[in-house]
């Protein structure tokens, strides 16, 4: 589960673009190509190939990896600020938002240590609490007779 959580966070590694002076709205800027479905598919393919090499199910690992990666862009489209993600890159560089935008946009970097950052973290905690509860709920496996 830690691997998939890391994959879900990976698209935000594009914040390095700020340090490299790549404009926010550029293809490789924040929320650009790394937030697209194509990027998610490409990385999911790499994970599937690695899984197959390790004797695991390539289809299963590829699918869950794609969902983890693609969820990041979709969730960013639900925020109320910044530029939307370029979900359809390389076919379009258009930044998109969902019709409903209930999540507050997070401050970047040290801004997360501000009152605004605390507010965003609290909202996200409450919104995603049911998902965490479901994922971490103890399950019993049926015994095999």
Can you characterise this structure?
The chain is mainly alpha-helical and 145 residues long. It folds into two domains: 2-102, no CATH class; 104-135, no CATH class. The protein contains five helices and no strands. Helix 1 packs across helix 4 (58-76) and helix 3 packs antiparallel against helix 4.
How does the helix and strand content classify structurally?
mainly alpha
Q: What's the story with the biggest beta sheet?
A: none
Mean pLDDT: 94
What fraction of residues sit in β-strands?
Answer: under 5%
Give the % helix: 40-55%
Helix and strand run: HHHHH
Number of helices: 5
The domain count comes to 2
**What separation lies between the terminal Cα atoms?**
29 Å
Basic shape = globular
By DSSP, the count of extended strands is 0
Taking all Cα atoms into account, the compactness measure Rg is 17 Å
Uncertain segments of ≥5 residues (pLDDT<50)?
Answer: none
Structural topology:
Elements (H helix, E strand, L loop, with lengths): L1 H8 L6 H4 L17 H17 L4 H19 L38 H22 L9
Helix pairs in contact: 1-4, 3-4
Which key terms come to mind for this protein?
2 domains; globular; 0% strand; mainly alpha; 145 residues
Summarize the structure.
It contains 5 helices and no strands. It has 145 residues and is mainly α.
């Amino acid at each position: 589960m830690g691997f998939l959580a890391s994959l879900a966070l990976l698209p935000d590694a594009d914040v390095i673009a700020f340090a490299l002076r790549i404009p926010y709205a550029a293809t490789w800027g924040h929320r650009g190509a790394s937030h697209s479905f194509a990027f998610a598919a490409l990385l999911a393919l790499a994970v599937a190939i690695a899984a197959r090499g390790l004797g695991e199910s390539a289809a299963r690992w590829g699918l869950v990896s794609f969902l983890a990666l693609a969820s990041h862009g979709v969730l960013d489209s639900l925020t109320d600020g910044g530029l939307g993600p370029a979900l359809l890159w390389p076919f379009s560089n258009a930044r998109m938002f969902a019709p409903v935008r209930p999540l507050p946009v997070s401050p970047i970097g040290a801004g997360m240590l501000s009152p605004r950052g605390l507010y965003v973290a609290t909202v996200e905690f409450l919104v995603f609490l049911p998902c965490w509860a479901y994922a971490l709920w103890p399950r019993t496996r049926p015994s095999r007779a």
